Amino acid sequence: MNASNSIKVTNTIDQSVPPSLRVDDAPRETSERNLISDFAGPIVVFAIFIGVWYLLSTKLLPPQKRFLLPTPHRVVQEGFLTWSVGEQRGLKPILRSLWDSIKIAVIGLFITILIGTTLATLMATRRWMERATWPYLVALQSAPILAMTPLIRALIDGIMLQRILVVVLIAFFPIVNNTLFGLLSVDKSQHELFTLHGASKLTRLRKLQFPAAMPNIFVGLRISAGLSVIGAVVGDFYFRQGGVVGIGAQIDIYRGRLWGAELIAAIILASVFGLVVFILFGLLSKVAIGKWHTTTRGR
Amino acid sequence: MAGALGFNNVGMTFPDGTKALGGVSFDINLGEFVTVVGPSGCGKSTLLRIASNLETETEGKCEIDRNSIGYVFQDATLLPWRNVRKNIEIIAELHGIEKSQRTKLAQDAIDLVGLTGFEDKYPRQLSGGMRMRASLARSLVMKPRVFLFDEPFGALDEITRERLNDELLRLFQIEGFAGLFITHSIAEAVYMSTKVLVMSARPGQIVGSFDIPFSYPRAHSLRYEPKFAEICGEVSLALRGALV
């Protein structure tokens, strides 16, 4: 079962008994065992989390600071069960601003994937491209993007575009890095098979490198998708105007007005969004490569 | 060209100065199965890489019909994202053969190696022996005149290995290609071949040549006949000489 620990398992020859036997048996065995750990684990952690939360908001925090962390039932009551009070309070404004951020994250992610995979492909096929861009990609990854907000504002018109750019800048590196790594780590003898039969560069890319890179590409996608959510939410703090606000801006408003229940409800929903994106890309990867790639099993 | 494959005083020196091969000469005709045995790192694989044009010889000349080569790697090198059928179609695909014809060619090859019924399985669902069968089928699709084998069964257990030896000999009899086979196993070499060549340590040179007198088809029991043991002994002796 150590197969799930390594990405390159698929290339090794297994000389032992027909793996088909294990392939048939393994999922059944793990699914039974996982039934307990899959559900019991998260439930226990959730219970502890709620318990600590109650303890904090009713006992541990000094009374004058308890407004910062309302009890869980107040958060549910005021943040989730109240539809709308005035312009800003209740579930409706939270969902409205969340939807706004979702759009930004999705558009940003889409652009990231498009540019990122294209760049990675160029880097994989032309060494000078890799040499020329790699150091700057690494620099970009560690650059404090949010400190550049004045520059972004000065260079680009329109709040939508500015927010999308922040998403792209934050989510860019993992998709390039993982795609490039995948494209370049194809087995040598598989490359030779293609060389022997006169495959062109394009054929090699289409029929060998890209399929082989898919597991890595999906890892990159998953990381970038998570970052795009962070990028969208954090970008909201810096780019907003009038009626257009994302969930980050909404959170900032609650923070400023000391509306604890709404603040926490909004934070929870933003996290749930991130979680949904993570699960979604996990499923996508399972559908796309689960048939032949073992490490996606069980996620 | 004398045969389907001809090595004419072929030498190979790598850019780093390593002399892998020195003055290797032999021919293989259609219907001949030649096996090269030699110590590790003696340049056996380099021989195949030159024949298949993956490397270019630095001395002498290797003559071969480059359009009709089958190459079987040490490991099966199947593409894990393709099922058996699609894996076996890949070479035909790379040669631009149209879909309906290559499906037919692939099916013929699948039936020939005994993988019928496993067409839709993925490589990770197959045993090592079955993967190697798929790899053989993949090379068979284009009906190559020259077949190069780079220790294809080295990673398999003895029983699977012997069974695949028989399978391969059966294919050899049907197709009548010229075979060049690399192995570490003397018994495998003698069992399979019309001729066994012994190679010396680096730089690799042919230091012994043994014509194997047994006719095909060869039975498994051949391995236990005195004559077989005798030839194995001679090859082994030559191999020991090559090591000094």
Structural write-up:
The complex is a heterodimer of chains A (299) and B (244). With 299 residues, chain A is mainly alpha-helical. In chain A, 75% of the residues lie in helices and 0% in strands. Chain A has a domain at 98-292: MetI-like fold. Chain B is an alpha/beta fold and 244 residues long. Helix content of chain B is 37%, strand content 23%. In chain B, strands 5-6-7-3-8-9 form a six-stranded mixed sheet, sandwiched between helices. In chain B, strand 1 and strand 2 form a beta hairpin. The mean pLDDT of chain B is 89. Chain A binds chain B through residues 9-11, 13-15, 17-20, 23, 187, 189-190, 192-199, 203, 207-208, 211-212, 214, 289, 291-294, and chain B through 52-54, 69, 71, 73-77, 79-82, 90-91, 93-95, 121-128, 130-131, 155-157.
Quick one: CATH superfamily of the domain at 98-292 in chain A? MetI-like
Question: What's the β-strand tally of chain B?
Answer: 9
Structural class estimated from helices and strands of chain B: alpha/beta
How do the strands of the widest beta sheet of chain B line up side by side? 5-6-7-3-8-9
CATH architecture assignment of the largest domain in chain B: 3-Layer(aba) Sandwich
What profile does the largest beta sheet of chain A have? none
**Name of the CATH first level of the largest domain in chain B:** Alpha Beta
CATH topology of the largest domain in chain B: Rossmann fold
Number of helices of chain B: 7
Count of helix runs of chain A: 10
H/E topology pattern of chain A = HHHHHHHHHH
Shape field of chain A: globular
How many distinct domains of chain B?
2
Radius of gyration of chain A: 24 Å
Number of strands of chain A: 0
Strand proportion of chain B: 15-25%
Architecture of the domain at 98-292 in chain A, according to CATH? Orthogonal Bundle
Output the structural class of chain A.
mainly alpha
Shape of chain B: globular
